[in-house]
Amino acid sequence: MNNQSISLLNAMTKNAGLELSGKQLKAFSMFGDLLIEKNRQVNLTSITGEADIAAKHFYDSLTPVIYAKMPPIQANGSSREPVKIVDVGSGAGFPGIPLKILFGKALDVTFIEATGKKINFINEVISALGLCGCHTVHARAEEAVKHPDMHGKFDYAIARALAALPKLCVYCLPFLKTGGKLIAMKGRRDTAEREIAQSDALLAGLGGRIVSVDSFLLQPHINGQGDTGAPDLHPDGQDGRTPDLHPDGQGKIPAPPVIGQGGDSPVQHSVGDMERTLIVIEKVAMDPIRSSLRA
After folding, report:
1. I need a surface site. Which of 15, 104, 138, 270 has the fewest CB within 10 A?
2. What's the longest Cα–Cα distance across the chain?
3. Structural domain includes residue 269
4. For residue 20, what is the domain's CATH number?
5. How much of the chain exceeds pLDDT 70, in percent?
6. Secondary structure, 3-state, 151-206
7. What is the pTM of this model?
């Protein structure tokens, strides 16, 4: 990926309180290159501009850490045992691979994806980036959760734009230990609220309760570029530039591009297109499937 897009990711995460190392930024760049190249051969994602990938895939995948405080460990920190996350409906590896890049060995990630070309791509990325503590399952979520090694084993289940919340709860809550949390990554707040209302009666039967709902905008521009209503990432006037990942003695890289500027033409985004909502649901009681497995 070009240095402008990686600079954009670095500025967005830094503005949100996350510090990415040069090694992590290089891993994101490699991941982006692999995604772009593979997407030319098979359809993995409709988001193809490099700045869009940096913001709408990479940064978006890290928002559970920023807004939902998941998980309660330091990035690349140590814990006695890794925090176990299941990424349900991983697609091309989002949000699981960005989270793994951020947290390293402190995170153990299981990717569940039903589409063969996507699970194959996830395996390629894991190998290319040398990521350990990653596991892939080629199956539908409702099939995978019935396996004794998958049911009730995870600290977090996370799903990004996978299904409406009622169906998502049925798919994901059984993966969790009691006390574990489901993080549903959604778009617009109004849509999320409708889905929450539709889930009320279902949650009690699945042993879950909603603990938080956070809405925010992905930052659609930096340094005042673009006019989408979002605040400047650097209100103090600093340009947020970062050193070149591969210094060649030619100085600093250019200012980051406007999100949506993929290829030759900028793409205009509405506020709704950039709106995100995170719904956090805690597993507070054993669910019926787990009870039947114990019987």
Report:
1. 270
2. 67
3. no
4. 3.40.50.150
5. 76
6. CCCEEEEEEECCCCHHHHHHHHHHHEEEEEEEEEEECCHHHHHHHHHHHHHHHHHH
7. 0.81
